[in-house]
Amino acid sequence: MSHVPAATRALRMLRHLAGRSGPVSASALASELGLPRSSAYQLLEALAEEGFVVHLPEEQRWGLGVAAFEIGSAYLRHDPLERLARPLLSRLCEETGATAHLGILHGRDTLYLLKEQPPHAPTLITGVGVRLPAHLTASGRALLAHLPRAQVRALYPGAESFVDRTGRGPAAPGELRETLAAERRQGYSVEEGQVTDGFSSVAAAAFDHNSAPAAAISLTVPSERPVTPTALASRARDAAAELTRRLGGRGPTA
User: Is the confidence at residue 165, as pLDDT, over 80?
Assistant: First the structure.
């Protein structure tokens, strides 16, 4: 338990405001956070003095202030995700001999942020800054599998939303839903020749403090390599779980 309860309450309040779609009344904040109304007002006034929240008098609501934006911007400048993940990918690459990637969702694409490749490994299309169709990549599907269904439907409303590269992989919304459901149950995604013939990948998702998928760690090997996807998936899942811990995150909800 925290020895500074006021600090804990203030941080909980900021996190709660960050998760709302717009400003919130003090009474609603007090109710939603289980705080006395007087305590909620005191915390809001203290946060307002430091610029972390602002009061909107016409609406009688409170929203995030410029200082909160500055903190978020500083976080992004520090490249925390890449810094936290890089040693994990390096270790995976060294111990498995597979090419390791860190990817995030960018619309309907997987955007690769990091790549660790063993010596003399075959050249892959993937690289830092490369984007590939998320529904075809193991990394993309590992993340899509943990998005709300409505969000997946919005991303893939019809067959026209699907890109084909090798004639393999989901090609319609229903097919994608079935694939994602199966991969969510097993805890990892597998891609075999859907991006590039002759290569297979496995991936697992890492999660943020809201149990939302933040990034995926994947391992890619030539398809003829005598390693089962399950063996590599176990390593990817362990690394993703460690990244979740480093991010201060929580695993997916049921």
Answer: yes
Give the C-alpha separation, 17 to 251, whole Å: 22
CB 236, CB 230: distance < 8 Å: no
Tokens of 205: 């998702």
Question: DSSP letters along the chain, please?
Answer: --S-HHHHHHHHHHHHHHTSSS-B-HHHHHHHHT--HHHHHHHHHHHHHTTSEEEETTTTEEEE-HHHHHHHHHHHHT-HHHHHHHHHHHHHHHHH-SEEEEEEEETTEEEEEEEE--TTPPP-S--TT-EEETTTSHHHHHHHTTS-HHHHHHH--SGGG---SSS-S--SHHHHHHHHHHHHHHTSEEEESSSSTTEEEEEEEEE-TTS-EEEEEEEEEETTSS--HHHHHHHHHHHHHHHHHHTT--PPP-
Digit-coded pLDDT (tens) for 217-244:
999 998 776 556 778 999 999 999 999 9
Per-residue pLDDT tens digits for 115-135: 999 887 777 777 788 889 999
Does the pLDDT of residue 78 top 80, yes or no?
no
Inter-residue contact 235 to 213 (CB < 8 Å): no
- pTM of this prediction? 0.71
Asked whether the beta carbons of 150 and 144 are under 8 A apart, the reply is no
